[in-house]
Amino acid sequence: MWVLIIVLMFEGNFSIQSNQVMYPTGDMCETDRVLIQERFNKTKPKPSAIALTKCVDMPFEGIKYKL
After folding, report:
1. DSSP string for residues in 2-58
2. Cα–Cα separations (whole angstroms), residue 16 to 6, 66, 67
3. Residue 67 confidence class, pLDDT cut points 50, 70, 90
4. pLDDT tens, residue by residue, 5-63
5. Helical H runs in the chain?
6. pTM for the whole thing?
7. CB under 8 Å, gap of 24 or more: what pairs does 12-20 form?
8. 3-class secondary-structure state, position 61
9. Exposed/middle/buried for 18, CB within 10 Å: 0-12, 13-18, 19+?
């Protein structure tokens, strides 16, 4: 499973977030990542604001419940 991590930095503050979606493939996550990154870049409050996005593979081997 893949998750999309979002790091927002602005005026000395930061926030680490997710879009609360678990993706079955890296390609699906990457598609959303590009769209979200573009949206953040277009709506920055100031040019100094930074948004970093990354898809991360989260292995769930050995977990005894279904996601």
Report:
1. EEEEEEEEETTEEEEEEEEEEESSHHHHHHHHHHHHHHHHHT-SSTT-EEEEEEEE-
2. 6, 26, 23
3. low
4. 999 999 999 999 999 999 999 999 999 999 999 999 999 999 999 999 999 999 877 66
5. 26-42
6. 0.81
7. none
8. coil
9. exposed
